[in-house]
C-alpha cells in the first residue's frame, strides 16, 4: 500500500477547494472496517490514514468530513490528529522523508545523514519543503530499526543502513 | 540468530530461527517448518490447561515489565458474559529495541499463531495487533499473512476446523511512542489520543472498549506456540541464571558494536558474551564506555557494570539497571554522553502525552537545562536542579514516561559527571549554539 | 439502607465516610482541603495534574487523592514532607511558563494557582534564562476568551464539554509542553451552557468577555441568590462591585444545579442595574401624580383596597417572591380575584450530563410558587377579566404594548407596584416603588416544589420597598399597634395560615440549600 498516490501526493494548500474523500471505494473500505470494531470512533485512526493516503495530508475540511462520517465533532478529531505526529496538518512535498536521529542512530552518524538529505534535496531546513515541491525532510524520534543505522522512511519505503554517501542514489529513485 | 548476521554458537535459536528466510513468511512455508502445530494442539486443550502450561513454563512478558504471562491470562474473567479482547503490543518504539520488527517481518505466522492461541485461552472475541505507524514493512507482511491465515482457515469462523471463531485485526498507529504503554494503546485503538489511563481499573477488568483485555508483547506471543509444541519443561530448562527467568530472549544490540543485530540467548547468559562474542565488541581501537541494557528508559550502566552482569531480569537489576525491552545500546569512548543524554531527554519531551504536570513540563525543562550545559553556559547548580527535577519526575505520574527521562539523566550524572563538568569548565568546546 | 462506613485518619483527624469515597472528599469531612487542579466534584477525574498527591501510610509511593478510594484504617498525611515537596514541585512546573500577569488577570484573587503558590509554593523560580512559552489569546466563542499562556492543562473545560455538555467542542491539541486547549476552526464555543468553563477554569485561562476587566475579585461582594431566569431555580451568587451587579455565577447545590448555570441565566442581570427606577410613591391628585411619603401612600392604598367591591385582578411578575405574591393576594381576598403571572416562553436547553437540569421553557423563577398562592399563568384570561374588574393591581409585571392597550380603556382603578415606569403608570391611581429581586430577601419555589431563599445583593433605590412590605403594612392596617412583618422571614411566616403548604416550614428550615415542599397529597416536608 502506497501512502502517496501520484496525483494526490503533496498537492493542495490550506485554501484549496475541498472534495470529499469518503465517497465510492474509499467510503466502502471505511464502512467495511466498522465491523472490525465495536464503535465507529475506533475507526478514527484508520480513517485519517485513508485521508492522508489520498491527499498527502489532512486538511481542515477533511477533519470535518471524518467527524461527520464517524459521528464525532471536528474538535475531537483535531485533538486526535495533533496527538499523532505522522498525520500532516500542513501540505508536504511529493515525497516525505523521515530520518531517525535518536541516540542509537545518533551515535552512528544520523545527524550527518540528516544534513546530507537537506543538502541533496534542497530543503532549507528540517520541516520545510524543497523549492521544487519534491521533498520534505523531517527528523523523527526512533524508527525502531536501531541495528541498521541510519534508517529513513521515504513515503512508505523503509530504507536501512543509510549513510551520507548513499543519499544521492536513494533520492534519484523519487521523482 | 543474530540477524542480519549468521547465528552465533552461544545463541539458542528458537524465535529467530527463520529470520532472513523469506519462505517462512508464507502460510505454506510456515506450515512446512512445523508452523500451526502449536495452535492445533492448543485448540485440542482446555483453556485452563493452556494457561497452566504457560504458568509452568515460566514465560514472562517480553515487553519490559516481565510479568508472568500465564498468571496474566488467568486474571481474565472465566465466564465470557461480555466481549473479551486480546491486544498484541507491536508498537515497538523503545530506542534501541528492534526485535518485534524482525519477528513480524520474517515470521508473521508465529505471531498470528500466538495471538490465536491467546485469543482462545482467554476467550477473546477478537485480537487487535497494534503496529506502530512507522513499521510500513512489518505492516505489509503482517497484512498479507493475516489474509493468508484467513484464506487457509487458520483464522475465522472455525480456526483449523475446531469450530471456534478466532479473529485478528491489525491496527496501525500513527507516530506516538507512548502508545506502547498498554493503557495508552487501548485508548489509541478506541480512536482517542494515546493518553495512559489511571489504574485501577486494570485491563483484565476494564481494558479496551471498557471490556476485559489482556495485552501481550509480540515476542511473548510468538513464544507461545513453541511452548505448546515442545512443552513447559523444555522452556523452563532454557535457563542459566535465576529460575524466575526462563526461556530465550531476543536481544537487540545496537550502537558502537561491530555486528549490531538481534541475538537470541538463554536467560542468564553473561552480558559480556553478548557484547563481545556475539556482537563482536567495539570497533577496532575503541573501548566500550557505557551500555544502556533495556531500551533507553533504564539507567545507564558503565562498562564494568555491564561486563559483570548476567543477562536476565534479576541479573541486570543486581547491577543497578533493568532488563526492560532488552534493547541494548552500546556507546564507545568516542561518545559524548552529555549530548546523548540530551538526545534522550529530548525524545521523552517530544513524546510526553501532556497529561501529568511533572512529565509535560519536566521533560521539556530537563532538555533545556542540558542544552544550556551543551552550549557552554551551564552552572554547578544545574546538577542539583537536574537531580531535583528527576526525583520529582520519578514515581509521581500516571505512567513511567517521565521516570524514563529521569533514569538516563540521574545515572548519567552519577556515572559520567566528569563529562558534564568538562562543559561547565570550558574544558570541552560547546557542542551546541547558545539557546 | 445504612451505608457501609470506612474509618480513616486524615491529618490526625478520624472520620467515618461511606465506602467508595475518595481521599480528597473524605479530607473535606476532616476539614482539610487537599490542593488540586484537574479534580472537580462534578466531573470525571483524570488524576493528571498530580497536585493532590498525598502520603498514605504503607503505600509505596504518593497517591493521587482524587481517584484513590479510602480504605479501612488508612492513615493519610496531606502535609508530610514528601507530599509537600511533590506539590511544591508541581507548582514550580506549572509556573515555569506562566506569565505571572496577575495584575491584569481577571482571575487574580480567586485563582487556585495564586492561592496554592502562596500557600505552599517556592518563593522563587529556578527556571531562569529561558524564554517562556508563548501562544496568543484565542477567541473561543461569543463570551469566551482562551489565554493559553496561563493554562495549566487541567482539562476541566474539555471534560465539561465532553462529558457534561455532551458536545465535544474543545480538545487538547498537540502533545508534551506544546499542548494547548483547542477548538475546531469551523466551530465556536457557543453551547447554551458553555459559560461554565470559565467558572471551572482554576486559573485565568478561560475568561468571560462580559466580565473582562470589570472588577478585581477582592472588590466583589457576593450574595447567595436564586437565578431568576427560569423555573429550574439554579442557585447563584450575585456579585456586585460598588452596588452594581457585575456577574452572576453558579452556587453549588447538588440537588438542583450541581455547580452549573446556563448562559441565558448567567447573562440575565443587566436589568438589575437599571437606572430608570420609580423611586418614590406617587398618588394621583387632581389628575396628576404627586410624590408622597410612605404613610400617605399606604393610607391611600388601604382605603382603596378596603373600599373596593366586585372583582379584582392581579397582574404580577413571575420574578415576584412567594411572600410578595402571597401578601398582595391576601390584600384582595375579600373580592372575587383573578390572579396571573406572565410567563414568557423560550427553547428548552438541557445539560445532558446532569439529569434534571435544564434551561426551562418557562422563563420565570417562581411559577410554582405563584400557583401555590392562587395565581395562574393564564395571562390573557386575566387581562380579559381586568376589563370588568373594579380593581387591577399590577405587581411589577412586564407589560407588552398589547397589554398596555388592553389596560388603557378599563373602567376599574389601576394600582401599580413597580420597579420601572411603564405606560400604565400614567393612568394608575397609585404608584408604589418596589425592590427588584436583587434588592430584597425572599423565596421562590422551583418546578420541583423546592422552596429556596434568595438574599439582597444591592441596595434599594430611593424609597423602593419589597412588595411584601407594602402589602404587609396595608394588611396590618394603620396605627402604632399594627403588627406588620418587618423582614421577609416574618412575611413568609404569615403565609402558612392562609396556605397550609407553607405551614411548618421556616426560613431556618429552608437554609441555603432549599427544601422540597410537601405535595398536595400531603406528607411531611422532605
- The span between the termini of chain B is 45 Å
User: Which residues of chain B sit in consecutive blocks of at least 5 with pLDDT less than 50?
Assistant: none
Taking strands numbered 1, 2, ... along the chain, how are they ordered across the largest sheet of chain C?
15-14-22-21-20-16-17
Largest sheet of chain B: 5 strands, mixed
Please give the most extensive interface between any two protein chains, plus how many residues each contributes: A-B, 44 and 56 residues
- How confident overall, as mean pLDDT of chain B? 95
Helix content of chain B: 40-55%
SSE pattern of chain B: HHHHEHHEHEHEHHEEEHEEHEHEHHHHH
Distance between the termini of chain C: 17 Å
Rg over alpha carbons of chain C:
27 Å
Radius of gyration of chain B: 22 Å
Q: Estimate the strand proportion of chain B.
A: 5-15%
Spatial sequence of strands, sheet with the most strands of chain B: 6-5-11-8-9
Count of strand segments of chain B = 11
Query: Structural class of chain C, please?
Result: alpha+beta
Query: Helix fraction of chain C?
Result: 10-25%
* Contiguous helical run count of chain B: 18
Give the overall silhouette of chain C: elongated
Biggest sheet character of chain C: 7 strands, mixed
Separate helix tally of chain C: 14
The mean pLDDT of chain C is: 95
Structural write-up:
The complex is a heterotrimer of chains A (175), B (435) and C (526). Chain A has 175 residues and is an alpha+beta fold. In chain A, 36% of the residues lie in helices and 10% in strands. Chain A is built from seven helices and four strands; from the N terminus they run ααααβααβββα. The N terminus of chain A is likely disordered. Chain B is α/β, with parallel strands linked by helices and 435 residues long. Helices cover 43% and strands 12% of the residues of chain B. In chain B, α2 crosses α9, α5 packs across α7 and α16 packs antiparallel against α17. The longest helix of chain B has 18 residues. Chain C is of the alpha+beta class. Chain C is built from 14 helices and 25 strands. Chain C has a seven-stranded mixed sheet with strand order 15-14-22-21-20-16-17, with helices on both faces. Chain C has a five-stranded mixed sheet with strand order 2-1-5-3-4, with helices on both faces. In chain C, a hairpin with a 2-residue loop joins β1 and β2. In chain C, α2 packs across α3 and α8 crosses α13. The two termini of chain C are 17 Å apart. Chains in contact: A-B, A-C, B-C.
Amino acid at each position: 500500500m502506497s501512502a502517496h498516490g501520484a496525483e494526490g501526493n503533496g498537492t493542495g494548500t490550506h485554501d484549496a477547494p475541498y472534495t470529499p474523500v469518503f465517497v465510492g471505494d474509499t467510503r466502502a473500505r471505511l464502512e467495511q472496517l466498522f465491523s472490525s470494531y465495536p464503535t465507529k470512533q475506533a475507526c478514527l485512526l484508520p480513517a485519517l490514514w485513508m485521508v492522508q493516503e489520498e491527499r498527502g495530508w489532512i486538511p481542515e475540511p477533511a477533519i470535518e468530513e471524518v467527524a461527520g462520517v464517524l459521528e464525532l465533532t471536528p474538535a475531537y478529531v483535531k485533538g486526535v490528529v495533533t496527538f499523532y505526529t505522522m498525520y500532516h496538518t500542513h501540505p508536504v512535498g511529493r515525497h516525505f522523508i523521515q530520518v531517525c536521529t535518536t541516540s542509537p542512530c545518533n551515535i552512528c552518524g544520523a545527524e550527518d545523514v540528516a544534513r546530507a538529505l537537506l543538502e541533496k534535496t534542497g530543503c532549507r531546513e528540517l520541516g520545510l519543503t524543497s523549492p521544487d515541491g519534491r521533498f520534505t525532510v523531517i527528523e523523527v524520534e526512533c524508527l525502531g530499526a536501531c541495528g541498521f543505522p541510519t534508517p529513513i522512511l521515504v513515503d512508505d519505503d523503509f530504507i536501512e543502513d543509510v549513510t551520507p554517501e548513499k543519499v544521492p542514489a536513494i533520492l534519484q529513485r523519487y521523482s | 540468530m543474530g540477524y542480519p548476521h549468521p547465528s552465533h554458537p552461544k545463541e539458542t535459536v528458537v524465535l529467530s530461527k527463520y529470520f532472513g528466510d523469506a519462505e517462512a513468511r508464507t502460510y505454506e512455508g510456515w506450515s512446512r517448518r512445523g508452523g500451526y502445530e502449536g495452535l492445533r494442539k492448543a485448540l485440542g486443550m482446555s483453556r485452563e490447561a493452556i494457561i497452566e502450561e504457560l504458568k509452568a513454563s515460566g514465560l514472562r512478558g517480553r515487553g519490559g515489565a516481565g510479568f508472568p504471562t500465564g498468571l496474566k491470562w488467568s486474571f481474565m474473567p472465566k465466564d465470557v458474559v461480555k466481549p473479551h479482547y486480546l491486544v498484541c503490543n507491536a508498537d515497538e518504539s523503545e530506542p534501541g529495541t528492534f526485535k518485534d520488527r524482525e519477528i513480524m517481518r520474517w515470521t508473521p505466522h508465529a505471531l498470528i499463531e500466538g495471538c490465536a492461541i491467546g485469543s482462545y485461552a482467554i476467550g477473546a472475541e477478537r485480537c487487535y495487533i497494534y503496529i506502530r505507524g512507522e513499521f510500513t514493512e512489518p505492516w505489509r507482511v503482517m497484512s498479507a499473512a493475516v489474509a493468508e491465515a484467513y484464506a487457509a482457515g487458520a483464522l475465522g469462523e472455525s480456526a483449523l476446523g475446531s469450530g471456534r471463531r478466532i479473529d485478528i485485526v491489525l491496527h496501525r498507529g500513527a507516530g506516538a511512542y507512548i502508545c506502547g504503554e498498554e493503557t495508552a494503546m487501548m485508548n489509541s485503538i478506541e480512536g482517542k489520543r494515546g493518553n495512559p489511563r489511571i489504574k485501577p481499573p486494570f485491563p483484565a477488568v476494564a481494558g479496551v472498549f471498557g471490556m476485559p483485555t489482556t495485552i501481550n508483547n509480540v515476542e511473548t506471543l510468538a513464544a507461545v506456540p513453541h511452548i505448546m509444541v515442545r512443552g513447559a519443561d523444555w522452556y523452563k530448562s532454557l535457563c542459566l541464571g535465576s529460575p524466575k527467568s526462563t526461556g530465550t530472549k531476543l536481544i537487540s544490540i545496537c550502537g558502537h558494536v561491530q555486528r549490531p543485530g538481534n541475538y537470541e540467548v538463554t536467560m542468564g547468559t553473561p552480558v559480556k558474551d553478548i557484547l563481545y562474542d556475539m556482537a563482536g565488541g567495539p570497533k577496532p581501537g575503541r573501548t566500550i564506555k557505557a551500555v544502556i541494557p533495556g531500551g533507553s528508559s533504564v539507567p545507564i550502566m558503565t562498562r564494568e557494570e555491564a561486563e559483570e552482569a548476567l543477562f536476565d531480569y534479576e541479573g541486570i537489576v543486581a547491577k543497578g539497571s533493568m532488563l526492560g525491552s532488552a534493547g541494548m545500546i552500546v556507546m564507545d569512548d568516542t561518545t559524548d554522553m552529555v549530548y546523548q543524554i540530551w538526545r534522550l531527554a529530548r525524545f521523552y519531551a517530544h513524546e510526553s502525552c501532556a497529561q501529568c504536570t511533572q512529565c509535560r513540563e519536566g521533560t521539556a525543562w530537563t532538555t533545556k537545562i542540558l542544552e544550556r550545559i551543551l552550549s557552554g553556559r551551564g552552572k554547578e547548580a544545574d546538577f542539583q536542579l537536574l537531580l531535583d527535577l528527576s526525583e520529582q519526575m520519578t514515581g509521581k505520574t500516571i505512567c513511567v514516561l517521565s521516570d524514563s527521562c529521569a533514569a538516563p539523566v540521574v545515572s548519567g550524572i552519577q556515572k559520567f559527571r566528569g563529562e558534564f563538568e568538562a562543559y561547565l569548565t570550558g574544558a570541552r568546546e560547546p557542542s551546541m549554539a547558545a539557546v | 439502607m445504612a451505608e457501609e462506613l470506612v474509618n480513616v485518619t486524615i491529618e490526625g483527624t478520624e472520620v467515618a465516610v461511606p465506602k467508595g469515597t475518595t481521599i480528597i472528599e473524605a479530607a473535606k469531612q476532616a476539614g482539610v482541603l487537599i490542593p488540586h487542579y484537574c479534580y472537580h466534584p462534578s466531573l470525571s477525574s483524570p488524576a493528571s495534574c498530580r497536585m493532590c498527591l498525598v502520603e498514605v501510610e504503607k503505600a509505596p509511593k504518593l497517591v493521587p487523592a482524587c481517584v484513590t478510594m479510602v480504605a479501612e484504617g488508612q492513615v493519610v498525611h496531606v502535609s508530610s514532607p514528601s507530599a509537600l515537596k511533590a506539590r511544591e514541585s508541581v507548582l514550580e512546573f506549572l509556573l515555569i511558563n506562566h506569565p505571572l500577569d496577575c495584575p491584569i488577570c481577571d482571575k487574580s484573587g480567586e485563582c487556585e494557582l495564586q492561592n496554592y503558590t502562596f500557600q505552599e509554593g517556592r518563593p522563587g523560580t529556578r527556571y531562569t534564562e529561558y524564554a517562556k512559552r508563548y501562544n496568543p489569546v484565542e477567541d473561543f466563542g461569543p463570551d469566551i476568551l482562551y489565554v493559553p499562556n496561563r493554562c495549566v492543562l487541567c482539562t476541566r473545560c474539555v471534560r465539561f464539554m465532553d462529558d457534561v455538555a455532551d458536545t465535544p467542542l474543545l480538545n487538547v491539541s498537540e502533545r508534551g509542553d506544546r499542548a494547548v486547549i483547542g477548538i475546531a476552526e469551523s466551530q465556536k464555543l457557543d453551547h447554551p451552557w458553555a459559560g461554565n468553563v470559565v467558572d471551572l477554569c482554576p486559573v485565568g485561562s478561560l475568561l468571560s468577555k462580559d466580565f473582562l476587566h470589570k472588577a478585581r475579585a477582592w472588590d466583589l461582594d457576593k450574595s447567595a441568590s436564586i437565578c431568576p431566569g427560569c423555573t429550574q431555580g439554579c442557585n447563584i451568587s450575585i456579585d456586585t462591585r460598588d452596588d452594581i451587579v457585575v456577574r452572576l455565577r453558579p452556587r453549588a447545590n447538588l440537588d438542583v444545579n450541581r455547580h452549573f448555570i446556563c448562559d441565558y441565566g448567567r447573562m440575565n442581570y443587566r436589568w438589575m442595574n437599571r437606572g430608570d427606577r420609580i423611586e418614590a410613591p406617587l398618588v394621583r391628585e387632581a389628575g396628576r401624580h404627586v410624590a408622597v411619603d410612605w404613610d400617605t401612600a399606604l393610607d391611600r392604598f388601604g382605603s382603596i383596597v378596603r373600599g373596593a367591591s366586585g372583582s379584582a385582578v392581579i397582574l404580577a411578575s413571575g420574578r415576584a417572591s412567594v411572600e410578595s405574591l402571597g401578601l398582595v393576594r391576601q390584600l384582595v381576598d375579600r373580592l372575587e380575584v383573578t390572579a396571573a403571572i406572565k410567563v414568557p416562553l423560550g427553547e428548552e436547553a438541557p445539560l445532558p450530563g446532569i439529569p434534571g437540569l435544564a434551561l426551562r421553557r418557562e422563563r420565570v423563577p417562581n411559577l410554582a410558587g405563584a400557583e401555590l398562592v392562587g395565581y395562574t399563568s393564564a395571562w390573557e384570561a386575566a387581562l380579559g377579566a381586568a376589563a370588568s374588574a373594579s380593581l387591577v393591581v399590577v405587581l411589577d409585571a412586564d407589560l407588552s404594548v398589547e397589554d398596555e392597550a388592553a389596560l388603557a380603556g378599563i373602567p376599574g382603578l389601576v394600582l401599580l407596584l413597580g420597579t420601572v415606569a411603564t405606560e400604565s403608570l400614567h393612568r394608575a391611581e397609585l404608584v408604589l416603588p418596589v425592590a427588584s429581586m436583587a434588592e430584597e430577601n425572599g423565596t421562590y419555589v422551583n418546578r420541583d416544589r423546592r422552596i429556596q431563599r434568595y438574599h439582597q445583593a444591592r441596595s434599594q433605590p430611593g424609597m423602593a420597598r419589597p412588595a411584601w412590605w407594602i402589602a404587609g403594612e396595608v394588611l396590618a392596617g394603620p396605627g402604632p399597634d399594627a403588627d406588620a412583618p418587618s423582614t421577609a422571614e416574618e412575611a413568609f411566616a404569615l403565609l402558612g395560615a392562609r396556605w397550609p403548604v407553607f405551614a411548618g416550614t421556616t426560613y431556618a428550615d429552608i437554609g441555603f440549600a432549599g427544601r422540597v415542599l410537601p405535595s398536595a397529597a400531603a406528607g411531611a416536608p422532605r
